[in-house]
Write a structure and sequence with these properties.
Blueprint: H1 9-15, H2 17-27, E1 37-41, H3 47-55, E2 60-65, H4 68-78, E3 83-86, E4 98-104, H5 113-123, E5 124-135, H6 141-151, H7 157-160, H8 172-182, E6 185-196, H9 201-209, H10 211-215, H11 219-231, E7 239-249
Parallel strand pairs: 1-2, 1-4, 2-3, 4-5
Antiparallel strand pairs: 5-7, 6-7
Helix pairs in contact: 2-3, 5-8, 6-11, 9-11
Length: 254
């Protein structure tokens, strides 16, 4: 399973400030000389990518996203300062290996982490760094409980029944095992909580969380479905994010 649907990039830009802030904070863990080639795996609208560009003034940034509208906005923001392309990360092909793979809020949309990590391992030079964060075990538990109720209701059930959803919220231990299986060394992973209280819960859920669900519904049922999910959540709505942060390196050349 992967998720390369086209997102509403404009709405995402209005609602995703907390998620982009996590990406900025994660980037502070990068120790860069300034001449590296960095892959931003799941670059979205390019806001975090823009900071990566600033941190490698003598290097190069490649931004990849599966959503054409996200890449379009990233191009408007970054112009020629980064190489941007639309691609499924599971099918990514780069002309040359990179020094760093950076990713924030993307990997949980990809079901096959073994295949993902194997591909990213192949994209890195010897001694290269992977630093990433995504939703982890226990992520958005309250919203998922509300979803289970809403998905079983008419008139939504015929469109959503039997679907397990678009996410892969992995645990740290299985993530380390998968990274090592792909060939990485010095693999580490951990969880931490990042609760978010969105200013506009309807737009936030519709844009950031429920897009894959809404794609499966007729247009006239989409807003009512979001409202049905919200009806199961206690106000003020708090989304209980659990972030999985991982880091690993490729072995240095012998």
């Amino acid at each position: 399973m992967t998720n390369t649907r086209d997102w509403n990039a404009t709405a995402y830009g209005r609602t995703a400030a907390p998620i982009e802030a996590w990406g900025q904070k994660l980037m502070d863990r990068l120790e860069l000389r300034g001449d590296e080639t960095v892959l931003d795996a799941g670059c979205g609208t390019g806001r975090v990518t823009e900071e990566l560009v600033a941190r490698v003034p003598r290097g190069r940034v490649i931004g990849v996203d599966g959503s054409p509208s996200m890449i379009e906005q990233a191009r408007e923001r970054l112009g020629e300062r980064a190489d941007l392309l639309v691609s499924d990360l599971l099918a990514l092909e780069l002309a040359e290996p990179v020094d760093v793979v950076f990713s924030s809020a993307t990997f949980h949309w990809i079901g096959d982490h073994d295949r993902l990590f194997a591909g990213l391992f192949g994209a890195l030079r010897p001694g290269g760094l992977l630093l990433a964060q995504c939703g982890g075990a226990g992520n958005i538990a309250g919203v998922r409980d509300a979803l289970a109720v809403a998905m079983a209701d008419e008139p939504y059930a015929p469109h959503l029944a039997g679907w397990t959803g678009p996410w892969n919220f992995a645990a740290p231990d299985e993530t380390v095992t998968r990274l090592e299986r792909a060939g990485f060394v010095d693999a580490q992973a951990g969880l931490h909580d990042e609760p978010v209280r969105p200013g506009d819960p309807h737009e936030f859920l519709a844009t950031v969380i429920l897009g894959s669900h809404l794609d499966r519904l007729p247009a006239d049922l989409r807003d009512p479905f979001v409202d049905r999910v919200l009806a199961e959540l206690e106000p003020p709505v708090t989304v209980e994010y659990v972030r999985l942060t991982m880091s690993a390196r490729t072995p240095t050349a012998s």
